[in-house]
Amino acid sequence: MIRSMTGYARVEQQGPAGRLSWEIRAVNHRYLEVQFKLPDEFRVMENDLRQLATQRIGRGKVEAGLRYTRDAGPSEALQIDHERLAAVLAAIERVSGQQRTSTAPDPIQVLAWPGVVRNDAAPAVAAPIADALLLFQTALDDFTATRAREGERTKTYLLDRLDAMAANVAAVRQRAPQVRDAWLERLRAKIAELGVDVEPARLAQEAAMAAQRLDVDEELSRLDSHFVEVRDTLDRNEAVGRRLDFLMQELNREANTLSSKSQDAEMTRLAVEMKVTIEQMREQVQNIE
């Protein structure tokens, strides 16, 4: 099963200690890069989170963010550090005196000053950390499932394009003998028009050289081989994006050679169609893990 590198997941959980919310998103990247945005009290779990992520994700730029809203208990009151509060008020009074203003300080802003309100609930964070780890695994499940579904859609798209290219290869293979015969007929007509006698051996030699220049069997065989390899790669249960990108380069090389050898408008058209299809496939392959 192939997987897309882009994905998104968001999960929430309400527990006794508060509400936890994970959001994971990813975009294309050459390698795996995972970034975590965590509240300070949850930083201790980053190594465990990274290990879980690398076990499930092979490639992509991933951002995972945790939000934690702690619920206040019914009897829980703000714990004010009165010494800190007195120091803050004294500092405000001194600044007001220097500025010769008498505006009363905003109580909300005073309470928001670091250290004025004590956080006595810090030891209770141990339980939410365990819950956050479990919830992250749930988020990873949703995230990888999203990438897998997108990967399956991409696989279907690539297989459809492969079928179209295989049809083009079959058309070129059928057309090639007609092109060689038409070239030989034009040569004979040109000789007759000029009214010259050409030895049969010399004509056969020219025909053989032309057949060699126009021969595309090797390119067609390699294209068929690459089609098989792409299909096999799409069935692998691993990260295959780089391998598919290499195969797209190989397909494009053979299509270019086929186009350069073409001496027929229809064969040229078929080769151009193949190159367009390969480019469409390459764009999709860039999104595969």
**Principal-axes shape call:** elongated
Average pLDDT level? 85
Query: How do the strands line up in the largest sheet?
Result: 1-2-4-3
Distance between the termini: 11 Å
* Structure summary, number of beta strands: 6
Account of the protein in words:
The protein has helices at 46-56, 82-99, 107-112, 126-194, 200-214, 217-234, 241-261, 265-285, and strands spanning 7-15, 18-27, 32-37, 60-70, 79-80, 117-118. It is an alpha+beta fold and 289 residues long. Strands 1-2-4-3 form a four-stranded mixed sheet, covered by helices on one side. The N and C termini lie close together (11 Å).
Layout of helices and strands, plus pairs?
Elements (H helix, E strand, L loop, with lengths): L6 E9 L2 E10 L4 E6 L8 H11 L3 E11 L8 E2 L1 H18 L7 H6 L4 E2 L7 H69 L5 H15 L2 H18 L6 H21 L3 H21 L4
Parallel strand pairs: 3-4
Antiparallel strand pairs: 1-2, 2-4, 5-6
Helix pairs in contact: 1-4, 4-5, 4-6, 4-8, 6-7, 7-8
Summary keywords:
two-stranded antiparallel ribbon; 289 residues; 8 helices; four-stranded mixed sheet
Brief synopsis:
By secondary structure, the protein is an alpha+beta fold.
